[in-house]
Design a protein that fits this description.
By secondary structure, the chain is of the alpha/beta class. It folds into 3 domains: 141 residues, Rossmann fold (3-Layer(aba) Sandwich), CATH 3.40.50; 146 residues, 3-Layer(aba) Sandwich (Aminopeptidase), CATH 3.40.630.30; 174 residues, Hypothetical protein (Archaeosine Trna-guanine Transglycosylase, Chain: A, domain 4), CATH 2.30.130. The strands form 4 sheets. It has a 7-stranded mixed sheet with strand order 5-6-7-8-9-11-10, covered by helices on one side. Helix 1 runs parallel beside helix 7 and helix 5 crosses helix 6. It is elongated.
Amino acid sequence: MRVLLDTNIFIYRETDHIISYDLQQLLSVLNKIQTELLIHPLSLEEIRGDQDIRRQAVMLSKIGAYPLLEMPPAPEEDPEFFNIIERKDETHDLVDNHILYTVYKDAVDFLVTEDRDIHKKAIKLGIDNRVLLIAEALTVFHGHLQKDSIIIPPALELKPIHNLNLSDPFFDSLKEVYPEFDDWFKKIKREGRKCLVNYKDDDSIGALLVYKLEDEPIDAIPKIPRKKRIKLSTFKVAHFGYKIGELFIKLAIDIAISNDIPEVYLTHFIQPDDRLVELITEYGFQHVGTNSREEAIYIKELFPKPTETKGLLPFDITKLYYPSYYDGAAVKKFIVPIRPQYHSRLFTNYKDRQIELAESAGYFIAEGNTIRKAYICNSRIKSIAQGDLILFYVSERRQLISVGVVEAVFGGLQNYRDIIKRVGKRTVYSVNEIQSIARKPSLVILFWQYWHLPQPLSYLRLKGMGILKGPPRSIMQISEKDYSLIKEAGDINERFTIN
């Protein structure tokens, strides 16, 4: 991104050598998002023409670090431009027009200026959304900063890459596949990039996710057009049995959502019996091509177009476009009561849960890392089917909190071994707990975790809305009208719902 700086933004108590605090903040933000900052050559000439030698020297010292815009377009031969704005012969107005023309002709993406006349002209030209005051620019560009405000388990650390030990044996296989890995690693350290890392008990690296926010085309044959994306630059797990790969996918999606980014992708040399390919394709990454290095390119879309979901079954939408999901009238909706201890273990990314002792010691609750989970109860309900929505009501909290999409349902199970076969490694229930539940006919629901309601709904609120008559003791179906009320009151993001 290219941003032109009008020199008037540097004028702050002109005889001083300092710049305003807001400008300092803006320049810091622009530096963090790796913006190309430029000065127009005519702005430099205008300063050099200042008769106040001391002021001239101060201004030149302030802008000296910024490169000049090379061969900027000139408006003199563009009658259309001057049909919109008035042409004047004053030197200052000439400079202003040239500065503004660079935005008008898309030579730069944005202009930052405190000149009110330039802003008035920008409105006439229809480019006022790209001509910014310092305060406006702070707001606009702060939104481009990478946001890492996601909930991660204590066993993972979000840290700068320069804190990693490149001699760790974890990196050996990466160095074999990528001969230039050492040079690339040094480069991203200097860029101040961050990563998610897990350490084993012996302090060696057990898992690593290096990611990057991009807004550029993807090197592919044919080239994939420019778009905002999260690139998973390094995605490797050597600490098996804890569902860390699934957790990485979930966290990458969370980072994309918090930064309003519609796609996540990675490149990968496919190996025989490739675990990574099996994992990412299970959660909707699609093979879209190959790059010049002959790496396969896998992209996951988060916000599908209506044409992409038309004709798909509800659960197919979940598999292909998670975290988007179908919530129209073709699927039923249920409130599912759950005890707080099971909710806490199932949904380890819920912000208000109590962290368990093992987590504090640096261990995972493996089942909490998963996207696909299992719920067990003694309900005799038979109407739940694949694709239906389940809304978890936490009994002691007396709140409706979490949302899931049903993958499969198994009812009438009376042998705990049959239950264990169905839930596999996706349950947070111990064998003793499963044996206790299995004393009565049991129901197993396999589901995909989606959201926690931004606004959890209390029992009293649900009762006041006419959705509940009393605390739910077993799974209960709700109407489309009731779901619509929950969706609105719970502040479910409709960008992810397809109906």
